[in-house]
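ingest -> validate -> predict -> emit
validate: passed (alphabet ok, no gaps, 224 aa)
predict: started
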Amino acid sequence: MKRLYLSDTVAGEIGAYIAEHQLAAGERLPSVAEWMQRLQVGRSTLREGLKRLEAEGVIQIVNGKGIYVSDQQTFRVFSRLHVTDARRHLLEMLDVRFVLEEKAIRLTTLNASEAEFDEMAKHLSDYQVARAADDFLRVHEADSAFHLAIYRASHNQVLVELIRLIHSELYVSWQTTQDRNQVFDASFPHHLTLLAAMRQRDADAAVVAFSELMASTQRTIEKM
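emit:
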């Protein structure tokens, strides 16, 4: 079973940096040392994130010279798109995510153990601690871990793999740090309500809470 690694988050943050600064093919990115300082991660974690981006055709690493934006076309980088195109893409992905996650929530409400609910609660606690510290990387990691825990607790592996793809797309598409923080801040209270309803084995209430979470996220995206 796959899980979200910090290196995935690092890759998303670098992808978001490319989009935010509208870097074109061939432009140079900050050095490895600068990224380690900026993201507060170790060399091995950064290396894994960079390897992922290089494999996806987002960047090119030239030994002895640095890290450059690749000239390959990539689905995940929005630097060549108008912001309205990126917004539409995000909203369409939210529609798909809603269908998948509603099913996962109903299955999880029925199937999850108390230990699995405790794991979700821990991720939300980590989320709050990271947000208080204004540590967006950790906020994203905790949020993704919470939702992936819901999918795992549904005991449907196909759903787990599908949502991993969509979460990755959503994360690297935010245009600025302010946009990303607004999305997380607005939706967080609904995460708590969602977890409480699932613990009570009330699938309908859990779906209502999730609907409010998604509506909050959609409203924020529409204002971007």
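The first helix runs from residue 6 to 20.
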